[in-house]
Specification:
Blueprint: H1 2-26, H2 44-55, H3 71-83, H4 85-90, E1 92-96, E2 100-105, E3 115-120, E4 143-144, E5 147-149, H5 157-173, E6 181-186, H6 197-207, E7 211-222, E8 233-240, E9 242-251, E10 255-256, H7 265-277, H8 288-298, H9 303-310, H10 312-323, H11 327-333, E11 336-344, E12 350-351, E13 354-363, H12 369-379, E14 385-393, H13 404-417, E15 421-427, H14 433-436, E16 440-451, H15 453-456, E17 465-467, H16 468-485
Parallel strand pairs: 3-6, 3-7, 7-16, 8-15
Antiparallel strand pairs: 1-2, 2-6, 4-5, 5-17, 7-8, 9-13, 9-14, 10-12, 11-13
Length: 487
């Protein structure tokens, strides 16, 4: 009897092994037609000079509008007109809101719906406490070590400059698009884009313009950042997470600190935050942009990692534990919770009768924001605790990875950057695309620039810079994309 049982177990193990290995061997990238590299005759020195000049305008967005100095925005707009006269003479230009810009390059009329290229030229502040950490002054636009240094170099003036350079390049060559090409530059993306991109989207809607697809900032060509992936990853993001901010308030009797009760407001608030820390929303590895991203990337990985993704029916719990072990992995897979501000007390010997916490959630596009709020209220059930919603913005709709727009982005990425893995993905922060998606069938988020982990650390940090090679390739990318997409 035991012998028969061992034989059955052995057969099951062998069959299981065959199934796992077979599924893994079949889990490989599709065979793609080799793309011929595409290049343009680019005046590198001119682009670098223009990028350097763009950085010298401190177009800083603050959360408080009264703190924002408007002169740099006016000067930057004037600089664009002076630097790119051919664009301004051939494309219709409209100033939207206070300082945002909308350009229209009218096509010959035989193409499809318009496409929209977008970027923003406002930047985040540079804290005075960090200025001595910069190798080169943040608003000097110095050209050193094969790069242009300064705030906005990667986020996002480089895209503004590259788009304008690409338009100039095509205009000088006599190129005419078959469909309309719209270009939009927002001035307040760093504080939500409620005046800039939102107003541009409203203007397009008022004109009756229906965009086939738009392209905004998002992911980059990531070099050496994805563990186990030998080739750079061009991540074309399909959606961005939503935004939910709560204020959690705990109340109790005040009093003197010499006679502290057990149920103090601060303790109650701390226990509530601990409840949130111990709770996790569902992971989304089976469907949606996160699943698409990991499945595509995994096809290019070594056998062992491919085996895990090819056999999620068996290894999914192991995969989810591994992926969510890092903050980035967890953010990609699920809605996240982060207490960001705390407030309590007025004096060291007085018990605080009220303690408050501001908690920020980033909503995964597979989650409904009302369901998220309902689940949170089921967790926050302690006596004396109330929850108020300060801000609630659902995640963006999920764009198609099977559209002509996505195919054009993928093809041009391979032409310009060579042997890269192209995969859909998810933007875990916010962009202006959430506004443009109201007038666009699909909205994609991708910066055509190659970065490594060192570059990644400079976003909203110190020593932000963009390489000269990235500037020329980004210009080539936008020019090639317009030509590829406007036929």
């Amino acid at each position: 009897m035991l012998r028969k049982l061992l034989i059955v177990v052995l057969i099951v193990v062998v069959v299981l092994a065959v199934v796992i290995v077979t599924r893994t061997l079949l889990f490989i990238p599709p065979v793609l037609t080799a793309q011929k590299p595409q290049s343009f005759l680019i005046d590198e020195a001119s682009i670098v000079r223009h990028m350097s000049e763009a950085i010298t305008f401190p177009t800083i967005s603050f959360g408080n509008a009264e703190n924002t100095t408007r002169e740099p925005f006016e000067n930057f707009i004037a600089w664009l007109a002076e630097t790119y006269p051919l664009v301004y003479s051939r494309l219709s230009t409209q100033r939207i809101g206070q300082y945002s810009l909308l350009y229209q390059w009218q096509g010959t009329g035989v193409g499809g719906k318009p496409i929209l290229l977008t970027a923003h030229y406002d930047v985040v502040p540079v804290p005075q406490s960090s200025r001595d950490q910069w190798q080169h002054p943040p608003f000097a636009g110095e050209i050193k070590e094969g790069a242009v240094w300064g705030r906005g170099a990667l986020d996002d003036k480089s895209a503004v400059v590259a788009i304008m350079e690409a338009l100039t390049l095509l205009l000088e060559s006599g190129y005419e698009p078959q469909r309309d090409i719209y270009v939009a530059f927002g001035h307040d993306e760093e504080v939500g884009g409620s005046e800039g991109a939102a107003s541009i989207a409203s203007e397009l809607k008022a004109r009756g313009v229906q965009i086939e697809w738009s392209l905004d900032e998002g992911s980059f060509v990531l070099d050496g950042i994805i563990p186990g992936l030998a080739s750079p990853l061009a991540g074309i993001n399909l959606s961005e997470k939503g935004f939910l901010t709560l204020q959690i308030t705990a109340k109790s009797d005040g009093g003197h600190s010499s006679m502290p009760p057990h149920d103090m407001a601060i303790y109650t608030l701390a226990e509530t935050l601990n409840d949130l820390q111990n709770f996790s929303f569902d992971n989304h590895l089976s469907s949606g942009p996160s699943a698409e991203m990991y499945l595509e990337i995994a096809r290019h990985m070594p056998f062992t990692k491919r085996m895990l993704f090819a056999n999620q029916w068996l290894f999914r719990p192991l995969l989810e534990n591994a992926l969510t072990a890092s903050p980035v992995g967890a953010a990609m897979l699920r809605t996240t919770i982060a207490p960001t501000m705390l407030q309590a007390g007025i004096k060291e010997n007085v018990l605080a009768p009220v303690a408050r916490a501001t908690v920020n959630l980033r909503i995964h596009p597979q989650d409904d924001i009302d369901d998220v709020i309902t689940r949170l209220k089921q967790i926050i059930v302690r006596d004396g605790v109330s929850v108020d919603i300060l801000n609630a913005t659902p995640a963006s709709p999920i764009s198609s990875s099977n559209s002509a727009g996505f195919a054009a982005l993928a093809e041009v990425s391979r032409r310009i950057f060579g042997d890269v893995v192209v995969a859909p993905g998810l933007t875990i922060a916010g962009t202006d695309s959430k506004h443009y998606q109201t007038v666009s069938q699909d909205a994609y988020r991708f910066n055509p620039m190659m970065i490594d982990s060192e570059d990644l650390a400079t976003f909203h940090g110190v020593n932000e810079r963009i390489s000269i090679d990235n500037l020329t390739k980004a210009t080539s990318f936008y020019a090639a994309l317009i030509m590829e997409s406007s036929q």
